[in-house]
Design brief:
Shape: elongated
Oligomer: single chain
Number of strands: 0
Order of helices and strands: HHHHHHHHHHHHHH
Radius of gyration: 32 Å
Distance between the termini: 34 Å
């Protein structure tokens, strides 16, 4: 509104008093000078904000690496558990052969009707005291892609995708270990007898647990309590925290930076480019009038919104 008013008022004044043209030219050069100062300030602000975002990304990276490593150790323990003799005879072949293309996420989301196999599975009677669900959940923790089901050669990526982290978090993967080996272990003691796990497998799982969190598991032996606590820690702490931190690293530029960049472009075009080009090729008063009006309007806008802008920036930093 101010820009439009200034263009109209200056044009009318110059038309009425042509002797003001030299003053208009001087004001144009002043507008160019002010534009240089504004552009410099905008560039410094944008670079400082981007540098700050990079610094935050680096600091987050160290924490993400530590959590990712913890999750790798947990998944290695789960891999040993999946391949062990823990399970009731026949359970693994039942799942792997009859429902080889089914994964835990499909089973939990059977109501969406995306997988006929999931519906068939839900219509089956529980043959192994519901422990087949724990087996599916354990296999799901070895997946890198929520749309796959094969875990024969599972990998340990440098960074987990947000897709798999979101699925693990959404379905609280890991909490099955707490439920079956902790909260309800007395109900599943026959189906999930930890004494069936070979000693070498027990030692491997315990070693991975200590690597995962030495302070928490150093003085524990292999037992149902160990498996329960590992599952609880992963589902309640590690996976949600890792998901949130990785999501923070995928940042878009803050709205303030985008808006300052728009002001920067406007000032460059109307405060620098237009006056220079018009002086060389189109020496008409209207171009000087537009340049002056735009620069004055931008300065006025900055002056009026500076307090709210600074307050928002401080709150965002907090």
């Amino acid at each position: 509104m101010l820009c439009g008013f200034l263009i109209y008022a200056i044009s009318q004044k110059v038309n009425q008093q042509p002797d003001l043209l030299p003053v208009l030219e001087k004001l144009k050069y002043l507008a160019v000078f002010i534009s240089c100062i504004l552009c410099t300030g905008f560039v410094i602000y944008i670079i400082s904000r981007i540098s700050n975002l990079k610094y935050k990304g680096v600091s987050l990276s160290d924490e993400i690496d530590a959590l990712t490593q913890q999750l790798h150790h947990f998944r290695s323990a789960v891999d040993v558990l999946v391949r062990s003799k823990l399970w009731v005879p026949g359970l693994k072949s039942y799942i792997d052969e009859e429902f080889g293309d089914l994964n835990y996420f499909m089973m939990k989301e059977f109501y969406k009707g995306r997988s006929k196999l999931a519906v068939e599975y839900m219509e089956e009677n529980n043959r192994y005291g519901e422990t087949e669900q724990l087996y599916l959940e354990s296999k799901a923790l070895l997946l890198d892609n929520p749309r796959k089901s094969d875990v024969t050669n599972y990998s340990s990526p440098r960074r987990f995708s947000l897709d798999i982290l979101q699925k693990w978090m959404e379905h609280k993967c890991g909490s099955g270990l707490w439920y079956y080996f902790g909260y309800k272990y007395s109900n599943f003691k026959e189906e999930l007898d930890v004494n069936r796990v070979y000693e070498r497998h027990q030692e491997k799982i315990l070693d991975y647990a200590v690597r995962m969190d030495a302070q928490r598991y150093q003085d524990m032996g292999f037992s149902e309590e160990l498996l329960s606590r590992m599952g609880e820690q992963v589902s309640e702490i590690i996976i949600p925290k890792l998901y949130n931190l990785q999501k923070q690293t995928i940042q878009k530029l803050p709205p303030a930076v985008n808006f300052i960049y728009i002001l920067f472009i406007v000032v460059v075009i109307f405060g620098l480019f237009l006056p220079i080009v018009s002086s060389l090729f189109f020496p008409a008063p209207v171009y000087s009038t537009i340049a002056i009006a735009v620069v004055v309007s931008v300065v006025a806008f900055i002056a009026l919104s500076l307090y709210g802008f600074v307050t928002a920036e401080i709150n965002q930093e907090d």
